[in-house]
Amino acid sequence: MVSSLDSSVGTERNVVTEIPGPLSRALQARRTKVVSAGLTIGFPVYIDRAEGAILVDVDGNRFLDLGSGIAVTGIGHAVPELVDAVSAQVAKFTHTCFMVTPYESYVEVCEELAALTPGTFEKTSALFNSGAEAVENAVKIARLATGRSAIIVFEHAYHGRTNLTMALTAKNMPYKDRFGPFAPEVYRVPMSYPYRDGLSGADAAARAIKIIETDVGASNVAAVLIEPIQGEGGFVVPAEGFLPALSTWTSEHGAVFIADEIQSGFGRTGYWFAVEHEGVVPDMVTTAKGLAGGMPLAAVTGRADLMNAVHEGGLGGTYGGNPVAAVAALATIKTLRDRNLIARARELGATMLETLSSLQRDVAVIGDVRGRGAMVAIELIEPGTTTPNAAAAKAIVAYCQQHGVVALTAGTYGNVIRLLPPLVITDEQLADGLGVLGAAVRSVQ
Ligand code: PLZ
C-alpha cells in the first residue's frame, strides 16, 4: 500500500513566504530559459505535492485549490483509491498499445462509459489522450457515419488547440492567432447567452437554426457540436430549452448531436453529464479531464451504429486508453460513487450560488452569477453597464493568489472568474475560499 501519504499537507491554506516564494522564483528563472514562451504563466508557484483541495508549493505555501487543474481533479488530489490503483498498475505494466495486445481495463472503462452516458441504446467508445483528440475523433466519426462534412459550432466555444479543434474553437487570442490556415467546413452560429442576449432558449435556438438552414443547408450538416455549459467561453449556461431544441432539430435532419462534456462532465454539475439537467440524450459524448482524476485519458462514446460505422483501423493511437490512465478512470468512477460526490457537487453549487449572489447585491462590479453544481462563475462588468471588465477579473484572481487561493479566469472577454473546486472540498474550506474571493471582489470596487 502506498496510500498512506504524508498527511502534513493539512487542510488549510497558509501563505508563509512572499508569493511567489524564492524557490518558485528560482524555478521560474530556469523555466524561462528552456520552456517555450508560448505557454501561459497562470500562477508561477511550483507545486511539490497536493492532497484533497490543498496544493503545497516548493516554498511550503499551502493553497486552496478552486480550479482542480481546470476541472480535472474532481475527486481531489492524492485520493488513496486512485494512488493505489495507479501504483499497482505501474508495477504490473505501463503500456502494450491496445491495438497491439489489449487489456481488460480499457474494456471496463468503455463498459462504464456506455452505462453512465445518457441514452439506453447500445453504445461503444474509443479512448484517446486529450480532450482535443477526442473532439477531433468525434468529428471524424460523425463525418464518416453521415457522409456529410459540415460541422456546426457556437460562439464562445472551446474545443482544443489542434488544427481541427482550433477551427472549432471561437476565440482568436490566444488560441488561433496566426496559427492558420484552419480546417474547412466549420460553421459558427450564435450561442444562447442569457445574460448578454436576453433570449429564451427557444428563441436562441430558432436564431441558430435559421442560420444553419440558410447558410449551410440542413442536409449538409454532419454534426452539431456543443458544450452543454461552455467552459473556457465563460461558463455560459444556455437558456432552458436551447439544448433540447437543437438536439431535436439535429436528429430530425439526420445529423449527429455531439455533447462536448470535457469540462462540464463527470459529476461536476451535479449529474454525471450536464446535458442531463434538461434530459437531452446526445448521439455522441466527448469526455476527458475529470474522467481519470489527472491521468491523461479522453473518450468518444456514442451510438453503436455511428461508432461502429468506422472501418477497422480507422481509429486509434499509440497511447489512447493507456492502462495506467484506464485504471485511474475506474478508480475515479468508483470514488465518485462511493463518496457520493455527485450529490456533493449540487451542495457545493448551492452554497457558491447563494454566497456569490449575496455578494453581487453588495457590489457593482458583478454583472452575473451563474452555473450548475460545482461549476459556477461570476461575470465582471464596468459598474452600471454590461461592458466586460477583464481588468477586474485579473485583479481579483491576483488578490486570491496572494492570499493563498487558486481561482481561474475564463470568458471570451476575459472577464469571468470560474470556480471548479474539487468535489471533496470541505464546507470550511469552501467558506474560506469564498471569503477570500469576496474580499478580493470588494478590493476592486
Ligand atoms: N473541450 C469543453 O474545456 C479543455 C483548455 C486549457 P484538452 N479546456 C482547457 C488550455 O488553455 O489549453 C477542453 C474543454 C472542452 C475540449 C478541451 C480540450 O481538452 O485535454 O486540453 O485537449
By CATH, the architecture of the largest domain is named 3-Layer(aba) Sandwich
How much β-strand is present in the residues? Answer: 15-25%
Name the average pLDDT.
97
Largest sheet data:
7 strands, mixed
Overall geometric form: globular
Distance between the termini: 51 Å
Count, helices: 14
In total, the number of strands is 15
Indicate the percent of residues in helices: 25-40%
Side-by-side strand order of the widest sheet:
4-10-9-8-7-5-6
Low-confidence stretches: 1-5
Looking at this structure, what is the CATH superfamily of the largest domain? Answer: Type I PLP-dependent aspartate aminotransferase-like (Major domain)
Ligand set: ligand PLZ
CATH class of the largest domain: Alpha Beta
String of helices and strands: HEEEHHHEHEHEHHEHEEEHHHEEHEEEH
Domain module count: 2
Pairing-aware structural class of the strands and helices?
alpha/beta
| CATH-assigned fold name of the largest domain | Aspartate Aminotransferase, domain 2
List keywords for this structure.
about 450 residues; about 40% helix; disordered N terminus; alpha/beta; Aspartate Aminotransferase, domain 1; seven-stranded mixed β-sheet; 2 domains; binds ligand PLZ; single chain; 15 strands; Aspartate Aminotransferase, domain 2
